[in-house]
Every structure is written in structure tokens, then in C-alpha cells.
Amino acid sequence: MPDAKPDIGKIFHALGDPTRRAILDQLVAGPLSVSRVAAPLSITLTAVMQHLQILEESGLVRTEKTGRVRTCRIEPAGFSVLERWIRDHRTTWERRLDRLGDLLEGEH
Amino acid sequence: MPDAKPDIGKIFHALGDPTRRAILDQLVAGPLSVSRVAAPLSITLTAVMQHLQILEESGLVRTEKTGRVRTCRIEPAGFSVLERWIRDHRTTWERRLDRLGDLLEGEH
DNA sequence: GGATTACTGAAGTTTTCACTTGACTATCGG
DNA sequence: CCGATAGTCAAGTGAAAACTTCAGTAATCC
User: Which nt is closest to the CA of A63, judged by C1'?
Assistant: First the structure.
């Protein structure tokens, strides 16, 4: 099972860590092998793999192994989930703020 | 100091916890006192306060005490920071995907 | 003013997280 | 085939996170 169901909690948790955000920033420039992802980070390869696993489980990254090298790339679908969550929540409270606005306007 | 500087790491961390997302969902319907926020959650008032503090430090929520009751409300500015982060990152990798598309097109 | 309400503060506990070490497996190059 | 390369597995460590309990304090109610 390559990636899991889109769970907004996992996505936020994944993005909560600065190292994982740094990994994403690297991958934005194009797919990379695990060692290449690890190179600029001052932590062990193992730690990087653990981060990649969390990113993959969140649906933000997809990885694929060919031969002995595992290639990691951004999974845009994961970000769509995130975007949708924010859009939904924002419109909800904007509606609420609008109602509040109407209320205040009716007051004077 | 009511709220801190917008730190995307703090925001993601705050949103990573299901209880805190539940609190936000409540506040979307309008401002509430701490006890009212705590009522539907099966944890202690103290725990709720700790969550509220994290939410406030992330800039997603603003609280204000009048008399003996502290009122909590959503802080839309916090969400703007989040929105901007996503938009920025999304456009970055969309540009990358476009370049990739051009590349493939030029190949055959 | 005494009880109640609404929160606050300071511990202490348990779980989860980020990270390491060290041993191990599976390719690839010569 | 042999050695280097690329990644994987299984524990273990230390610190941070999410809770709890319990003892305050400060407003409000009667």
C-alpha cells in the first residue's frame, strides 16, 4: 500500500516539522533519491527515511524503488486535500463574520 | 503579549492535534468562554486551557478576559498566513510541473 | 460575607517524537 | 565474485507533548 487515505491530521502533523518542510522544499525542485534528500540535512539517513515515511503516509510525497535507489517526489493530490480543508473552513467563518457584519450594520 | 509572530511551524503543529481542530470548529460558530469550549470535550478544563494557549501562540485564536470569563474567538489573520504558505508552495511546484510538461513535449 | 463560578499555576505521569547506533540486505560496477 | 553503494530493520535514548490532579485566586451571586 503506497499511500494512505487523505487524513488532514496526518498532513498537518507531517508539515509541523521543519525538517520535513525542508525535504518538501527540496522535492519541489524535482524528484530525488533518499541519499540526495539526506545530503544537505545534518541528520542520519535513517532519520531521513523516517521523515519520508511520515510524508508518504500523509499523502504529501510518493516514493518508488527501482533497483537499489528509491526516488521521492511530491504528490500534488496531498496538497489539494490541505487546500480544500482550508478553503472549506475559511468560507465557513467568513459566512459567520458576514452575519456578524450584517448584525452590526442593523444596529445603528 | 497576546499573540506571537506568524510562525508556520507553530500553525501546523497547532492544527496537527484533533482536539485543537475540534476547538476551532466550535469557535467557527462564534466566540465562546473557556468552559463552554471545554464542555463537549472529554478532557479537563486545564487541558483545554493548554490547547487554547497553543492555539493562541500560533495566531489562530485570540482570547480576552473580561471579569472572570475568558472569551475565545478565531483570529482570521492566522489562517491567512496558512493560506499564503500553501498558495506560495503550490505555485512553486506547479511551475516545476509545467517545466516538466514542456520538457516531455519537446522530447518526441 | 460566604458560597459558587470560572479560570490559573505548579507539579507529576504517560505517550509520542525525533533521532541514533549498529547490524543487515540487495544492487551495481569492475 | 568482491567491494562499494543505497537503503532497511530493530532497538534504544532523551526530550517534548498531552494529560492529570490538586491547590490556589478573583469575580459574581444571594
Answer: D7
